[in-house]
Amino acid sequence: MDTDKNLQRRQMNSKKKRVFITGGAKSGKSSFALKEASGAAGEKAYIATAEALDEEMRERIQTHKRQRGKEWDTYEEPIKIGDLMMEIGDKYDVIVLDCLTLWVSNLMRAGLKITDAFNDLRKVLQDIDNAGGRHCLAPAIYIVSNEVGMGIVPENEMTRKFRDMAGVLNQQIAEVAHEVYMVVAGIPIRVK
User: Fold this and answer.
1) Does domain 4-190 have CATH number 3.40.50.300?
2) Which of 64, 80, 91, 135 is catalytic?
3) Which of the residues 48, 119, 133, 139 could staple to 12 if both were Cys, CB 3.0 to 4.6 A apart?
């Protein structure tokens, strides 16, 4: 039996919003995503794909948590973001997923089949709201990724593979997004 809150979320899915935000490193894309998502009412979740593999990264992660504040529930998931979204999606009104390129790096480092993971995430974003009423994702989802293909061709195979995989994933997510933004020097430009 649906709770009143879950029923309300299901009804809001007719107004669902899937936003994809890309840009270069330190372009302001995460800040833009948080600013936009923070303006929405309701429960908020932040899915972080970064791993604290060294002291500098641990400090970055702690700084970002403090900046988000207490209105955000944070989930740290480096690999199974599709599964996590399925698990928590009906509990939140807004989800920010940051960042897909770190996720690609995590998948590569773990030696996992990247195309399967991409397809799983894309399917979650496309089909979950229509899964026989069993699950529904938050009405608003913001997905952040880096645009890594605008520079020179990398000199080694692994880096080229990473660039190519990130580019393919960005295209797939942009295709299923309702809105797409490119952030340049802190300025968001709507692309779709």
Assistant:
1) yes
2) 64
3) 139
